[in-house]
Amino acid sequence: MDTSRQSYYLTQKKPGSEVSAEIAAALAASSIVFRKIDDRYSNMLLARAKQVFDFANNHRGSYNDSIGAGVCPFYCDFNGYMDELIWGAAWLYKASNDQNYWNFVKSNIQSIESSIVVRNIKGFKVLANGGSFSEFGWDSKHAGINVLVSQWVMNNPSNQSPFVPNANNLICSLLPNSPTKSVTYSKGKR
Ligand SMILES: *[C@@H]1O[C@H](CO)[C@@H](O)[C@H](O)[C@H]1NC(C)=O
C-alpha cells in the first residue's frame, strides 16, 4: 500500500467507540478460535476483549471527533458507534456466554434500526436506512450482527426479531436465483 500508514491512539478524553468496540469484537472472536488450541492465550484474548469493550462503552464518543483528519473525509463514522458496540457485545456473548452482553444487544438493537444515514462516498451522497440489512463494512455492522445473532435466536421465536428476518433479507439479496437478488456478480475470471 502506498498510502500513509500513520498510527493514531485513543484515550478516555479522546475516545473512539466505533474502532474500540470493533477491536473488542475481533479479540472476542479470536478467543473462540484459540480456545481448543491454547486455553491460556484464549483467556487472555477474552479478558482483553472485555476491557476494550468497557473502554468503548464507558467512554463513548466518535473517532471522527478525536482523530479528525485521520479518518475523515473517507472513513468518517457516518452511522454512529452503536452498531459497533452491539457487534462487540454480540461477539463477547458468543465467546463468554455472559448474559450481560446478550442483554446489551437486545436492549440496544432497536436504537440502530430506525436511523437514517447519509454517507458521502467519493463525493456522492448515499442515503441508507440505519437498519439496512445488507450493509457490512467499516461503517455499518448491521449484516454481521444479524447473521451472528441469528445463530442463537434461530430456535427461539420470541428473540428472533429483528435478527432473523434481517438475515433472511440479506441472504435473499445475495443468492443468484433469489427473486429479490440485488447484487451483481463479477464474471469470476481466473
Ligand atoms: C462524522 O463526520 C461525518 C462527516 O462530517 C458526519 O456526516 C457524521 O455524522 C459524523 N459522525 C459522527 C458520529 O459524529
From TrEMBL:
<dbReference type="GO" id="GO:0008810">
    <property type="term" value="F:cellulase activity"/>
</dbReference>
<keyword id="KW-0624">Polysaccharide degradation</keyword>
<dbReference type="InterPro" id="IPR001701">
    <property type="entry name" value="Glyco_hydro_9"/>
</dbReference>
<dbReference type="Pfam" id="PF00759">
    <property type="entry name" value="Glyco_hydro_9"/>
</dbReference>
<protein>
    <recommendedName>
        <fullName>cellulase</fullName>
        <ecNumber>3.2.1.4</ecNumber>
    </recommendedName>
</protein>
<keyword id="KW-0326">Glycosidase</keyword>
<keyword id="KW-0378">Hydrolase</keyword>
<comment type="similarity">
    <text>Belongs to the glycosyl hydrolase 9 (cellulase E) family.</text>
</comment>
<dbReference type="InterPro" id="IPR008928">
    <property type="entry name" value="6-hairpin_glycosidase_sf"/>
</dbReference>
<keyword id="KW-0119">Carbohydrate metabolism</keyword>
<dbReference type="InterPro" id="IPR012341">
    <property type="entry name" value="6hp_glycosidase-like_sf"/>
</dbReference>
<dbReference type="GO" id="GO:0030245">
    <property type="term" value="P:cellulose catabolic process"/>
</dbReference>
<feature type="domain" description="Glycoside hydrolase family 9">
    <location>
        <begin position="1"/>
        <end position="187"/>
    </location>
</feature>
<keyword id="KW-0136">Cellulose degradation</keyword>
